[in-house]
Amino acid sequence: MNQAQKAETLRRLHGGPRALVLPNVWDVVGARIVEQAGFPAIATSSAAVAWALGYSDGERIGRDEMAAAAARIARAVAVPVTADMEAGYGPRPEDAAATARAVVAAGAVGMNLEDAADGEGIALLDVALQAERIRAAREAAAVAGVPIVINARTDVYLAGIGEPASRLGHAVRRLNAYREAGADCLFCPGVKDAGVIAALVRELTGPLNILAGPGAPSVPELERLGVRRVSLGAGVMRTALGAVRRVAVELGGPGTYTAIADLALTDDLNHLLS
After folding, report:
1. Can you name the CATH fold of 3-233?
2. Percentage, residues of the chain above pLDDT 70
3. Helices 127-143 and 164-181, interaxial angle, to 10°?
4. Can you list the pairs that 208-215 forms with residues at least 24 positions away whose Cβ atoms lie under 8 Å?
5. What is the rounded CA–CA span in Å between residue 214 and residue 169?
6. Which of 121, 115, 102, 196 is CA-nearest to residue 152?
7. Domain definitions of the chain by residue range
8. pTM (2 decimals)?
9. For 57-109, what is each residue's pLDDT tens digit?
10. Is 23 within 8 Å of 232 (Cβ atoms)?
């Protein structure tokens, strides 16, 4: 498949009947493991990429380094790659357009675009401005010849914006405006309650992406609720780092190797990357 075909493949994966499940990665070997496990697409985690390169999360890493990580992954796998590009590295529509061009140049075919104004979700961009940014990203990718899949994210729930009772309506208004502006999928992290998820599915005009993990409904239950995309964000890397800590604590304590025996891959990783 060429890049444009991969973009259309990724878009179709949001159409059901099964949810598109994405265990987010941050490097090539992780992407190859996920691909080998049979997942039809690869997604990056912006937080995980940033941490792996020595940055804290929240656009402390720049556009070029984030896109370079996606490029290394896209070159190494055959399936479509969607890149988490945070809030687009600048508040202007032209910043979002530049980020979309960087995604295409990296060989990826999708991008997450947040509405956080400061990179940490404490304040959200004006809805009209975010819609304009989505349109700019869509147009830039079209000019580049790749109809990328834009996963528009709102942090209404994740950042606890406003009173709890107001969040559903606020999130729906934002996400439907983003869909009208050209977003393909609508991402609402921070929601784990099945009733709220069901209400989002009913009220939104596009496919819903849920950030899953402990405390969230299982993937089959999310599918039953109508969720079309399920991702783990930084959860996979947090799990990997938990394994690193477990090994370190054991080695520095009793000096034994139980954690390595329990957790280490026995795959031939050189063969996986060849």
Report:
1. TIM Barrel (3.20.20)
2. 98
3. 30
4. 209/151, 209/153, 209/185, 211/158, 211/187
5. 25
6. 115
7. 3-233, 234-274
8. 0.95
9. 999 999 999 999 999 999 999 999 999 999 999 999 999 999 999 999 999 99
10. yes
